[in-house]
Amino acid sequence: MQAFESMTVLLPWLLIHHLSELTPGHASKCVLQNYFEPGLMANGDYVIGGIFPLHYNQEMPDLNCTYKPGPVKCNGFDPRAFRWALTMKLAVEEINKRTDLLPNYSLGYKIFDSCAYPLTGQRSAVAVLNGPNEENSPMCEGAGPLLAIIGESGSAQSIVVSRTLRPFRIPMISYFSSCACLSDRREFPTFFRVIPSDAYQVKAIAKLLLHFKWTWVGVVRGDHEYGRFALQGLLKELEGTGICVAYQEMIPLLYERQRALEIIHIMNHSTARVVVVFSAEGELTPFLRDYMENNVTGIQWIASEAWVTASVFTGSEYYPFLGGTIGFGIRQGQIPGLREYLTTVNPDRYPSNTLVHELWGALYGCSFSSSNLNNHLPSCTGKETVRVQHSAYFNTSRPRISYNVYKGVYAIAYSLHNLIHCTPGKGPFSNSTCANVFNVYPWQLQQYLQEVSFTISGETVKFDMKGDSIPSYDLINWQRGSAGNIEFVNVGMFDGAQESGQELVIKEKAIMWPGHQSEVLVSVCSNSCAPGFRKAVRRGQPLCCFDCVPCDSGKISNKTDSVECMACSEDYWSNVDGTVCIPKVVEFLSHDAMGLTLTVIALVGACLTLAVFAVFLYYRNTPVVRINNSELSFFILLSLTLCFLCALVFIGEPTSWSCMLRHTAFSITFSLCISCILGKTLVVLAAFTATRPGNNIMKWLGPTQQRIIIFCCTLVQVIICTTWLVASPPFPYRNTKYQQSKIILDCSVGSDLAFWCVLGYIGLLACVCFFLAFLARKLPGNFNEAKYITFSMLIFCAVWLAFVPAYVSSPGKFTTAVEIFAILASSFGLLFCLFTPKVYIILLKPQKNTKQHLMGKDK
Q1: Are residues 202 and 191 in the same domain?
Q2: Which three-class secondary structure state does DSSP give residue 172?
Q3: How does residue 95 score in pLDDT terms, banded at 50, 70 and 90?
Q4: How big is the CA angle at 697 (ends 693 and 702), to the nearest 5 degrees?
Q5: Please, are residues 218 and 245 in contact by the beta-carbon 8 Å criterion?
Q6: Given this model, what pLDDT does residue 33 score?
Q7: Is the peptide bond before 570 cis (omega within 30 degrees of 0)?
Q8: Is residue 548, in this structure, part of any structural domain at all?
Q9: Are residues 109 and 220 in the same domain?
Q10: Where are the alpha helices (DSSP H) in 381-524?
Q11: Element housing 162 (H / E)
């Protein structure tokens, strides 16, 4: 619909070009279809155009296509935009006075009003192409009278104007259109700009949001290409940053109050307290009026460059609602003599210029008596003061958009200067030719415009291949002025030419936040997760809305808002808070309370055994000691001593030698002990059996034979242990799987088969010994040693049978403790069962220490 309306208005304005080529035989005369007077105009050797939004509202004519439509009426004079137009006029006059730039040539200009609307912007573009005086041209031939255009302000208008100029290949330099879409050289091949592209602005805004940790924001945009492309660019920049957009709302191009109230309601009730706004001041003005009527406060506004320095919002009535606004504005610059030049513009000097009269009415609310154009205004007395809302018109200390207009005019002038001073044979066109200075085509000027580079006010101006300039912004903060109005304070900058991560510089202490606060507003969907927690996204909600879940054991998060918890390395474990990995507790049976207790018990056992050995040695000639081979008794006592002492090898940090010594020493000493007991059992059994007539078995169990039996039985265990040590010896082992928070230092048996063979062989010897002793338990005599051997073997087997499940199921150092306990328990069992009765007789009942009593023959 808009395109149709656009053509309806455009057709009456079109000039019929090259009519002779289209219709042979007809007159090739230019016929002006309508008349659109420029606001400001001056002749020159080369003419450039200017399009500015001198009014910010318009009344469209009736477009019913049944009759010629009337002119578009523009309302709402904008002194700020008129200052931009005057800046262009000043720049042209300044260039014409210079002798080093375009000497002997002059620039002319034609400046038109776009009314800040795409449709009227297109109308202005056609008017710039045609314009007054063209009706006097006899022929439509040769180069056109217009070389380039300075314009437009809004991106929506620039898109339309650039498309209109494209068939004529006329370059256009925009001073205020930042839509990233305009960087598309295929669609906008003649477009240039001295304002950074929104592709850089959205990067700057994204870095600003990240800097202040605003992760939950709303976006409000205008209904045009500028707003749409800015939103798309921002969403792309926010991907992967952890920042989420709570809502996206659009202000209608044709303002609707009901829709605006809906947007305001969403903003007021959302938990997002930061709102990014991509809009022009024209459509934002009525929206902010409704916003203030609803008394909405507590919102941090992020302004785009299109309205962050708009003077229309500087009134004191805006401060309670917009104070603290922050955004990126166009870089400031210096324009020598601009303020003095503006003061020369008055109705006395330009009595017939309606724009000057409108300026005077806007600034002072009066009109000169000599003018009949503003009869509704009172006559000026000369004592009027500038209206507060338009006081920025004369504020030219550090202009922004005006400076962009200034740079744009100079870019054209320098490009034209380079074109005129082209060296023949070194030109940029075919066959290295130069342009005809008396018949310059716009596309020839664009060739030089693409390569121009000059310095103005200390700033280098040049364009990249997309027509964009070097990206640079000032960070603007809206603060309360002395008169209660809003002042734009520079609190930082963004320089796209810097290295990544160094583009944004912020003076945080200079910023004043909404509500005249000095602390940054918080805008998050969920509070940050402290170290030791991770973010768990809520189902069906944006990534910024999450719950904080503690890290699992063995994992940590050492920074705020961690997405995942990091697992600690194998030798480390998480602390209680889950914030740092600490070395795991190394656990082994050390000389702690448990280790010392077992050590004392082992030493006590060894001492008791040696004490018994000493008693037996002292009473070695008594019947109790001699009754059944005292040599075997001494062997048993010595092996038991070693059994007690080998328990000490299990205590302490495992090493390669201690691991090998533990099981081999234990198995060999116990095998030696059980072999001696087996030999003693055989002797006892043979001694009582030999009393039968004709039985001479004792000759086969003499001392030598007993030693051979002991040696052979022990040798088998030695062979098993040797094979074990050679094939797969025990070794120190760091067990991190049984209990993940600890490192259990233990001895791996190496070969499970060898380990169980060792235990199995000891068990075999014990079972054989138990079986033989059991057979001799009822032999006659007051001191039947077979009975005590039976009890000792019964205890021994019970201990080791209980050891197996306890060994398998005990965790950590308790595995070693169980093994030591089995060694000590079985050793004490053998010691007490075998030797306590004898020591009792020797020391406490010496009267029974006789052969007759022991044989049961005393009376």
Answers
A1: no
A2: strand
A3: very high
A4: 135
A5: yes
A6: 55
A7: no
A8: yes
A9: no
A10: 401-420, 442-451
A11: helix 155-165
**Domain holding 834: CATH number?**
1.20.1070.10
Please return the burial class of 59, using the count of CB atoms within 10 Å of its CB with bins 0-12, 13-18 and 19+. Answer: exposed
Kindly state whether residues 187 and 112 are assigned to the same domain: yes
Please identify which residue in the block is written with the tokens 């060994």: 807
Residue 839's φ and ψ, nearest 5 degrees, are: -65, -35
Residue 521 has which token pair?
Answer: 């507003």
Q: According to the per-residue pLDDT averaged within each range, which of 91-100, 224-233, 337-346, 676-685 is highest?
A: 91-100
Q: List Cα–Cα distances, 339 to 343, 380, 394, 397, 850, in angstroms.
A: 6, 22, 6, 8, 138
Domain boundary (195, 228, 247) is at 195
Determine how many CB atoms are found less than 10 A away from the CB of residue 722. Answer: 11
pTM over 0.90: no
Mean pLDDT along residues 314-321: 86
Distance CA 199, CA 544 (A): 24
- What CATH number did the domain enclosing 73 receive? 3.40.50.2300
CA separation, residue 80 to residues 56, 193, 394, 401 (Å): 11, 19, 9, 9
Domain of residue 571: give its range. Answer: 533-583
Among 441, 448, 449, 435, CA closest to 144: 441
CA separation for the pair 213, 244 (Å, rounded): 11
Q: What is the DSSP secondary-structure string of 632-696?
A: HHHHHHHHHHHHHHHGGGGSSS--HHHHHHHHHHHHHHHHHHHHHHHHHHHHHHHHHHTTSTT--
Output DSSP code: residue 32.
Answer: -
Do 9 and 154 have their domain in common?
yes
255 with 303, same domain?
yes
pLDDT (0 to 100) of residue 300: 93
- Token pair for 332: 């400031």
What phi and psi, each to the nearest 5 degrees, are found at residue 729? -75, 160
SS3 content of the chain, % helix, strand, coil (to 5): 45, 15, 40
Answer yes or no: do 163 and 292 share one domain: no
Domain presence at residue 357: no
Q: Which of 690, 701, 580, 602 is nearest to 650 (CA)?
A: 602
Q: What is the pLDDT of residue 628?
A: 61
Tokens 């305001």 belong to 264
Q: Please state, in angstroms and rounded to a whole number, the distance separating the CA atoms of residues 195 and 155.
A: 11
For the cut 50, the answer to whether the pLDDT of residue 148 exceeds it is yes
Same domain? For 569 and 680 the reply is: no
Radius of gyration of the chain, Cα coordinates, nearest whole angstrom? 52
